[in-house]
Amino acid sequence: QVQLVESGGGQVQPGEPLTLSCATPRYPLGNYNIAWFRQAPGKVRERVSCIGHTAGTAYHADSVKGRFTISRDNDKNTIYLHMEDPKPEDTAVYYCGVEVVDGPQECLSLLPTSFVGWGQGTQVTVSK
Fold it and tell me: What is the dihedral angle through the alpha carbons of 71, 66, 125, 44, rounded to the nearest 10 degrees?
């Protein structure tokens, strides 16, 4: 079963860019739709961004649109989440997951139950 590894988190100031990585040495991530989720204390896990496996189409939540960018490097078998303008409300543990689909659709589900392969996550803290 696929098991992803998230990395790159840390503590940054508001507006200080940060890039997260999602990788696995065992499965070709280029064949899958991959999403980044985040979970803040006391809140549900929410989908932040997703990238499709065919044309690399990106989908972003309204809360991060224009500030975050999801991308993939199939040669490195890695998915990135670039946080260009993080805000304190972006503070959370960030996870990546593989979408379970039965067909050509991409990134339709916002539910974490539609994704598998969660790692331990990477903590992002945005504060002055």
Answer: -80
pLDDT tens sequence for the chain (128 residues): 789 999 999 999 999 999 999 999 888 898 899 999 999 999 999 999 999 999 889 999 999 999 999 999 999 999 999 999 999 999 999 999 999 988 888 999 999 999 999 999 999 999 99
Which whole-number Å values give the CA distances from 73 to 36, 56, 91, in the listed order? 15, 10, 25
Report residue 112 CA to chain centroid gap: 12
3 state DSSP class of 93:
strand
Q: By three-state DSSP, how is residue 89 classified?
A: helix
CB 39 within 8 A of CB 53: no
Helix, strand, coil: what percent of the chain each, to 5?
Answer: 5, 40, 50
